From TrEMBL:
Annotated protein name in UniProt: Transmembrane protein
Keywords: Membrane, Transmembrane, Transmembrane helix
Superkingdom per UniProt: Eukaryota
Membrane-crossing segments per the record: 12-33, 39-59
Species lineage: Eukaryota, Metazoa, Spiralia, Lophotrochozoa, Mollusca
């Protein structure tokens, strides 16, 4: 996208490319991990809330699950 200065060493340019690629990979991995963690936490929270509400209301999920 931009012209490489002639003074710049070729290996330096390669290292910059490698670091940029590694940075992109790291960012993608971090984003994926964060999304997975958020989804798991939200699912756990929803399940816990449902269980707590069910236990407070003492509302059976189905006749089979009725304890009384």
């Amino acid at each position: 996208m931009y012209k490489t200065p002639r003074k710049m060493h070729p290996y330096l340019f390669v290292w910059i490319c490698l670091l940029t690629c590694c940075g992109v990979v790291v960012v993608v991995v971090v984003v994926v991990v964060v999304v997975v963690v958020v989804v798991v936490v939200s699912v756990v929270v929803v399940v816990v809330v449902i269980v707590v509400v069910m236990s407070i209301w003492d509302y059976p999920v189905s006749p089979r699950d009725q304890k009384f």
